[in-house]
Amino acid sequence: MHGLQVTLLLLVAAVAGVVVFRLLQLPAMLGYLAAGALIGPNALGIALSQDPATAQHLAEFGVVFLMFSIGLEFSLAKIRAMRKLVFGLGAAQVGAVMLIVLAASLLAGWLLPGRWARPMAFGVAAGGILAMSSTAIVMKLLSDRLELESEHGRHILGVLLFQDLAVVPLLVLIPALATPGASLGRTLALAALKAVVALAVILLAGGRLLRPWLRLVVRRRSDELFMLNMLLITLGLAWLTELAGLSLTLGAFLAGMLIAETEFRHQVEADIRPFRDVLLGLFFITIGMMLDWRYVLHSWWLVLALALGVLVLKVLLVAGIEMLRGTPPGVALRTALWLGPAGEFGIVLLNLAAAYKLLPPELLSPLLAALVLSMLAAPFLAQHIDALVLKLVASEWMRASLQLTDIARKTIRTQNHVLICGFGRSGQNLARLLQDEDVVYVALDLDPERVARSAAGGRNVVYGDATRLHSLQAAGLARASCVVISYVDKRSALRVLDLVHRHAPRVPVLVRTHDDSSLDELRAAGAAEVVPEVLEGALMLASQTLAMVGVPLPRVVARLRDARAERYGLLRDFFHGFDDPAGSLEQAEQPRLRTVTLPTGARAVGQLLQGLELHGALALQVRRADGRVLEPDGALLLGEGDAVVLSGSQQQLALAEDELLGGS
Q1: Residue 435: exposure state from Cβ atoms within 10 A (0-12, 13-18, ≥19)
Q2: R_g of the chain, CA atoms, integer Å
Q3: DSSP 3-state assignment of 416?
Q4: I need a labelling partner for 39 at 20 to 30 A (CA). Which of 188, 247, 368, 404 fits?
Q5: The overall pTM is greater than 0.90
Q6: pLDDT, tens digit, for every residue of 153-188?
Q7: CB–CB of 19/36 below 8 Å?
């Protein structure tokens, strides 16, 4: 096969592998590995037998862009904020795994001097490979399960950040270990000196030159020119570090670090992602091709022992380190189980170690198979982590019960309160307005530091996961007047909507979104109203623009109110124009909303809405007991459990409520 045929074959295999594994709801990375194993020389043997260089070059580009993206995400502020977890827990985890593997390698060298010729080099390389966990798989699974902001989620993120940082010196160290033992120390010292000099020159000189150059490029207003510059900077610095005797990937990492300090970071990240993902996929295909399934099947016991042994070792080490740090047992075990499986950087380092012959050839296929098997097991292990923790940690039940008890204790006296899911900026602004109007609220949030600071400042905030039924019930879901989802996350919103629909269908739910793309889906799930950020931002931008160009302010406000009234059904009958401002009315005559739920025996049960005298109040919405939202059609027959949303003055609302409930 020539280069084009090999490239096309790899692309076909990539598409097929990703489609199959996506259908199985597994990470695409595993699809690439499986596709490579299938078409490689050790299985079907239809690729790379004629032209291994083409695929190898594509794979190297994939790793370059992976390290570039890691450098792009390198944030000194994030590292500083999580320094105790990154340089405490993370360093301890990587260091402990490498020390234990190195000790085992030295023991093997003493017991088997003929077969284990270089125990120091083997041990360091294998230790770095096995210490890694999968950032891509773990972060996606945590995000899908809405656990990134949990306590164990932050611990996992700290360890993964250190592992990403630890890859950089390992990329320098592993090639240096290929030097014969007599000159190893001198080689390591020279490699370290080169890395420091390269780092200093690139960061100091590059930092001063890169920002003005990128500004000059951006002024040309050409996407093609900007993209070409990104490719030139990434591959150019990678080439320079390789020229200095270091690895390509170190230069790519430094390029990412440089660009991360500029204002173009987010644009670069968005532009580079397609290249990175495609080329990284080809890299994992070539890794899969290295897998010799015949040897694996012959030595399946060794593969299984390696996979389970590494998993158990990492789980025990991380859990032990966490316990020594004073972490609760449940959080410690959860963190350990998430970090147990192997990672993509382990495979990157294995490929590098194989290139420099730093591992015995007969160990490459079993070790690669063990890493792949471990990564394949990660999604399935994640599904059972909660059950394992509850079964293995006796105090976890007590801890969960105490957490729910704490929520219930703080909310037991609340009635008709607003239940706010999430206490970020939007949640805090909402809470401030509610507090100004003397409206009781309870907020649930998963950031313990934010909860502690907010509670100390007098806010009614408790630690809890709004996507879990027990937390919602402890926060008084059944007694709430409404639920507000104040953060933008469709999966979480749908989960909360489902829980409220099944357990408290009379309680309306307001959902914040980024735009209207999920409007129909959220409304179908039971959202009483969906508030998109894009619409509100556009309305404010339009109002400011109209005011700037000289449109009279009363007309600007009227336009703004009309636009909102057209979009939000509950506000449709409130906006009568700027000529009748609410501030000019007596407090008791100002229009407001009230929700009246019809209990058993209420006068309105079994009657048509049009046959009821509401004394000037307007019926805006009727919510059925099953959560359905209906327009206030006069021919609508009211039933037990229906909630009628009324608007009007205090006196009108009181008379209308008496009309609806009379006789109950």
Answers
A1: middle
A2: 31
A3: coil
A4: 247
A5: no
A6: 888 888 988 887 788 788 778 887 777 655 666 766
A7: no
How does residue 227 score in pLDDT terms, banded at 50, 70 and 90?
confident
Which residues does residue 630 pair with via DSSP β-bridges, in sequence order? Answer: 622
Give a yes or no: residue 571 inside a domain. Answer: no
Residues 177 and 308 in one domain: yes
Domain end marker among 337, 372, 391: 391
For residues 629 and 524, the answer to whether their CB atoms sit within 8 Å is no
pLDDT of 265-285, one tens digit each?
777 777 776 766 776 677 777
- Determine the structural domain holding residue 458 and report its residue range: 397-513
Span 331-349, average pLDDT: 87
Among 3-7, 136-140, 580-584, which stretch is predicted with the lowest mean pLDDT?
580-584
- Tens of pLDDT along 33-55? 778 777 776 666 554 444 555 55
| pLDDT for the residue numbered 312 | 92
Distance CA 599, CA 604 (A): 10
CB 557 within 8 A of CB 576: no
* pLDDT at 479 > cutoff 50: yes
Residues 180 and 307 in one domain: yes
CA distance 79 to 83: 5
The CA distance from 378 to 29, in Å, is 12
Rounded distance between C-alpha atoms, residue 594 and residue 586, angstroms:
18
Rounded to whole angstroms, how far apart are CA atoms 634 and 636?
5
210 and 64 co-located in one domain: yes
Q: How far apart are CA 476 and CA 496, in angstroms?
A: 14
Q: Side chain identity at 424, as an amino acid letter?
A: G
Query: Do residues 507 and 482 touch, judged by C-beta distance below 8 A?
Result: yes
Q: What is the pLDDT of residues 17-32, one digit of tens each?
A: 888 887 877 777 778 8
Widest pairwise Cα distance in the chain? 99
Contact 163, 94 (CB under 8 A): yes
Crossing angle, helix 28-39 and helix 265-289, to 10 degrees?
A: 30
List beta partners, residue 442.
419
Q: Which has the closest alpha carbon to 441: 503, 484, 488?
A: 484
The answer to whether residues 16 and 92 belong to one domain is yes
CB 31 within 8 A of CB 22: yes
User: 404 and 357, same structural domain?
Assistant: no
Q: What distance lies between CA 70 and its chain's CA centroid?
A: 16
Q: Considering the domain boundaries, does residue 561 fall inside one?
A: no
Beta bridge partners of 531: 512
Give the span between the Cα atoms of 432 and 438, in whole angstroms. 10
Q: Could you tell me if residue 540 is inside a domain? A: no
CATH no. for residue 215? 1.20.1530.20
* Residue 346, SS3 per DSSP: helix
Higher pLDDT, 450 or 74: 450
Does 305 lie in the same domain as 431? no
One domain, residues 376 and 463: no
Task: Using alpha carbons, list the distances in angstroms from residue 617 to 86, 225, 591, 611, 644.
Answer: 59, 62, 9, 14, 11
| Confidence band for 595, pLDDT divided at 50, 70 and 90 | confident
- DSSP string across 308-335: HHHHHHHHHHHHHHHHHTT--HHHHHHH
Whether 556 maps to a domain, the answer reads no
How buried is 185 (Cβ within 10 angstroms: 0-12 exposed, 13-18 middle, 19+ buried)? exposed
Structure tokens that stand for 284 in this block:
């994992």
Most confident range (mean pLDDT) of 229-243, 328-342, 391-405, 643-657 is 328-342
